[in-house]
Amino acid sequence: MRVGRVMEQLSEHQCQGWLEGYLLTGRHGLFTSYEAFIHIIDSMFNQHAKWLKVTNHIPWRRPIASLNYLLSSHVWRQDHNGFSHQDPGFIDHVVNKKAEVVRVYLPPDANTLLSTYDHCLRSRQYVNVVVAGKQPAPQFLSMEQAVAHCTRGLGIWDWAGTETEGQEPDVVLGCAGDVPTLEVLAAAEILRHRIPDLRVRVVNVVDLMRLQDEKEHPHGLSDKDFDTLFTRDKPVIFAYHGYPWLIHRLTYRRTGHANLHVRGYKEEGTTTTPFDMVMLNDLDRFHLVIDVIDRVPGLASRYAGLRQEMQDKRLEARQYTREHGDDLPEVRDWVWPDAQDLADTTQVDATIGTGGDNE
C-alpha cells in the first residue's frame, strides 16, 4: 500500500531537513514554499546539490529520488503582501550549481505543470525547481499537447503566431513563466489585429536550461537548433519570470544574442494589482507591443499611432487601478480566444511524463 504525509511548519529550515532525510530513506517528496522565502534555505540547498554531485561518482551510493521544489505565491502575484514577498532570485542561485545536478522548469499552465511534476517525481539525483502560480489562470494546451511540449522543453506555439510557412518571422516573442506567457500571448493578439502583415513567432520555454549551450548543460540546445527557433538575425523580445540578466547569461554565446531584449522583474514592486505589477516592471502586453514597434525595422514610423495608443493604454490601466483597486476588466478577464475550449481538459494520467531525450 502506498502512503504519504503532508507536513506543514512555518520553518523552511525544518521542511528542508525533513525532506532531505525522507529522500535518504528511499522515498519521494516535494517541498513547496513561497518563492521569496525559499532563499532561507539557500545554504542547505547548496550542501545537498554538492552532495549529489559527489555521490554521482561513488559507485556504492545508490541514486535517490530528486529533491523537488514547488515555488508558488511567486513574484507576480503578491497582491496583498507586496514588495517584501517579491523576489524570483532563487533560480539565479540554483543555476550556479553543476549542470549535471540542477533543473529549472517554468510551466505556463496547469497541464504543463502536471506533466512537468510527473517527470520530476520520477527522476533521481537532481534538484528540480518548478515555479508556478496558484491563482486561477487560463489553460493553453491540452494534456497531449502539454506532454509533447514538456518533452521538447520549449517550442513554437504556431497557433499564437502569425508567421507564414516557408518565410522567416519578422520578430520572435519568447516567454518563460505563467504570467510572462499570458502577457506575450495578449501582445501577440494585439499585433495580429493591429499589424496583420507582421510575421510573429511565439516561442514558449518550459525547461529554462534548454536556452543554455549544449556544451554547458545536458538539456542545452545546439547552436543550430537555437538559431532555428529564435533565428540568427531577427529581434527577439523575451518575457521572463525572473531577473532579466539570467536569460542573457544563459544565451550570451548565441549568434543572435545582440538581438535579444529581455523583460522581467527589475526590483519594482509594491502591494498592488497583478497587472499593475507587470506594468511596474515593463513586462505588460502594451509595453511588449511597444518593444516590437521599436525593434522591428520599419515599424516605428509606420505605427507611431499604435505606439502612442499603447502608452495611453498603460496610463488608462494605471489610473483605473488607482481609482478602483482592481485591473481593467479587459485585462483582468482576458484569455486567448481558443483557450476557453481547453478549460475542462486538465486530467491526471499516471502514464504521462516529460521523458524523451530531455531526462
From TrEMBL:
UniProt domain Xylulose 5-phosphate/Fructose 6-phosphate phosphoketolase C-terminal: residue ranges: 134-336
Domain of life: Bacteria
Pfam families to which the protein is assigned, alphabetical: XFP (PF03894), XFP_C (PF09363)
High-level lineage: Bacteria, Bacillati, Actinomycetota, Actinomycetes, Micrococcales
Family (UniProt): Belongs to the XFP family.
Protein name: Xylulose 5-phosphate/Fructose 6-phosphate phosphoketolase C-terminal domain-containing protein
Keyword vocabulary terms for this entry: Lyase
Organism: Luteimicrobium album
